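TICKET: design request
STATUS: open
ATTACHED STRUCTURE:
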């Protein structure tokens, strides 16, 4: 009985003239749309299980209708321009308020706070819909129809961060001087631009008493097909209930809601889920530094202390891993990686470039691989043994292929060594200086290059290790004295070691889902320290992994690291 309805449906469809051909045509469109690369005629016919003459007739009809296009040079088929035209009409008729309504109700119930929908209207933010929590103890002043300043509200900052830099600057110029409706409003343009870079990097915006005294909020932008803001969805409430830590925990929920709203209008949603927790934590894993870093990264053992960063705080941490004490140095912009400097102190890969770093914070810029105003940031970086600093870059919104691998020489000269990277991440050099390893998290892969230390060049890029769905995403890495590659697996709950031939040697399970990077330190460089993140983890996930954002120590059972080289600049 369970199979009779589909059979009857097929019979009914076949009785309608043209329905069978239409069904086959839709199936062929799906094949072409889902293929990672354009398909040739024979591939389409074989995958669809159609006779060649039938497949040819259907494809010809689809090409004529401009639903598909045929590329004579390669003899392949791809989606046609007609789909773009139809997509425009979908978005032109998109009812944001109606589509967002279920998400507003869900967020208000989930958080027990007010959920709002807002749009940019001229030079201001207009609240167009709202759902109140059932037990709201504090009535908020702004309601539907009220307006807010874009630079002084979570909704406004979430949208500003997604605008092209030139368009954003024009809007802000019209608002100058920036007003301060709340006690913590940002009124200086450089500080606001740094804040918007943080918003773009983490995917959501916070307002901490910026729109009004005693009121906090978290918001995420709803994006259209061109990744431009249609509006924002936010949670807002009294600061005594919505503290900064809770806002960060709710940020992931607001992001999910924003993406579901866009997904309702045919934009594919990005998953924010993590893999299941392993049954147990591996032996030899201990807590080195208890912290709540949003995005802990860039560990470096230097002068008997573990130095590391929180990219999204942003801050530099200097930790005593014996006592667990942790000194925090707030910095004014995104900072992602650290290296020792030959002349003393450290250098840091920051939003504005490679900068000096000391106990007081960031100093002058030594080199600027990224042009001012570009929607990119520096990420993981390391020095080679000739004193050059190698660092990856990525788009703030993770646009594919926008990143690169840069080499910074001692004189501050910058050269792009590999373009077209998605999310440039962990970098490491083999002990014999014959190889450079580079993780591209967006491609779920670690690549290896032939490396010439004397010339400072790379060649012959090839895959070293690839990771399937559910295995985690390769993030930061380090290379031990025997040439083993240790990599932190984001959303994988573990660190893994690979032999120089790319085979798995061992995996170490951790009590957190998002380990981010690793470095050897301690006595004889025999301990592997692992940073972690708590950004975009839900309240339930944080309850399961409360140590997220901390630093862990792994007894590697004999493996040792190599001293990190200094930058010669």
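STATUS: resolved
RESOLUTION: sequence designed for all positions
ATTACHED SEQUENCE:
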């Amino acid at each position: 009985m369970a199979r009779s309805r589909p059979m009857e449906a097929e019979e009914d469809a076949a009785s309608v003239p043209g329905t069978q051909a239409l069904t086959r045509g839709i199936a062929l469109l799906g094949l072409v749309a889902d293929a990672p690369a354009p398909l040739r005629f024979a591939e389409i016919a074989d995958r669809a299980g159609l006779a060649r003459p039938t497949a040819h007739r259907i494809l010809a009809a689809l090409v004529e209708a401009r639903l598909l296009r045929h590329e004579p040079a390669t003899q392949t088929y791809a989606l046609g321009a007609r789909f773009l035209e139809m997509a425009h009409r979908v978005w032109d008729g998109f009812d944001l308020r109606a589509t967002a309504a279920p998400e507003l109700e869900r967020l208000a119930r989930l958080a027990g706070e007010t959920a709002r929908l807002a749009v940019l209207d001229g030079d201001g933010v207009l609240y167009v819909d709202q759902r109140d929590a059932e037990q709201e103890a504090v009535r908020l002043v702004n309601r539907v129809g009220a307006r807010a300043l874009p630079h002084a509200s979570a909704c406004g900052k979430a949208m500003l961060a997604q605008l092209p830099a030139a368009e954003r600057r024009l809007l802000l110029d019209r608002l100058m001087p920036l007003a301060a409706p709340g006690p913590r409003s940002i009124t200086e343009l450089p500080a606001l631009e740094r804040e918007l870079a943080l918003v773009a990097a983490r995917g959501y915006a916070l307002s901490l008493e910026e729109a009004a005294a005693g009121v906090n909020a978290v918001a995420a932008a709803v994006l259209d097909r061109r990744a431009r803001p249609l509006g924002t969805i936010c949670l807002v409430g009294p600061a005594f209930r919505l503290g900064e830590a809770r806002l960060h925990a709710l940020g992931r929920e607001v992001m999910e809601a924003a993406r579901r709203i866009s997904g309702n209008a045919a934009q594919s949603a990005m998953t924010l889920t993590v893999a299941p927790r392993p049954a147990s934590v591996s032996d030899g894993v201990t807590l080195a530094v208890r912290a709540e870093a949003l995005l802990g990264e860039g560990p470096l053992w230097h002068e008997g202390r573990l130095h590391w960063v929180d990219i999204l705080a942003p801050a530099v941490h200097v930790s005593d891993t014996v006592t667990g004490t942790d000194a925090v140095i707030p910095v004014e912009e995104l900072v992602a990686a650290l290296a020792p400097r030959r002349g003393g102190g450290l250098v840091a890969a920051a939003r504005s470039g490679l900068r000096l770093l000391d106990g007081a914070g960031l100093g002058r810029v030594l080199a600027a691989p990224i042009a001012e105003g570009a929607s990119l940031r520096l990420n993981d970086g390391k020095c080679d043994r000739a004193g050059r600093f190698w660092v990856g870059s990525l788009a703030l919104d993770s646009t594919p292929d926008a990143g690169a691998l840069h080499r910074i020489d001692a004189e501050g000269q910058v050269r792009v060594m590999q373009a077209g990277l998605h999310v440039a991440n962990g970098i490491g050099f083999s002990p014999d200086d014959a190889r450079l390893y580079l993780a591209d998290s967006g491609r779920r892969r670690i690549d290896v290059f032939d490396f010439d230390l004397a010339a400072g060049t790379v060649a012959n890029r090839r895959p070293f290790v690839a990771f399937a769905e559910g295995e985690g995403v390769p993030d930061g890495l380090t290379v031990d004295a025997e040439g083993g590659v240790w990599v932190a697996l984001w959303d994988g709950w573990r660190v893994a070691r690979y032999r120089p031939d790319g085979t798995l040697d061992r995996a170490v399970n951790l009590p957190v889902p998002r380990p981010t990077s690793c470095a050897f330190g301690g006595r004889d460089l025999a301990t592997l320290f692992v940073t972690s993140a708590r950004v975009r983890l839900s309240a339930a996930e944080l309850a399961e992994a409360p140590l997220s954002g901390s630093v862990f120590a792994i007894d590697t059972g004999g493996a040792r690291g190599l001293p990190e080289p200094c930058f010669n600049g």
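CLOSING REMARK: The longest strand covers residues 229-238. The radius of gyration is 26 Å.
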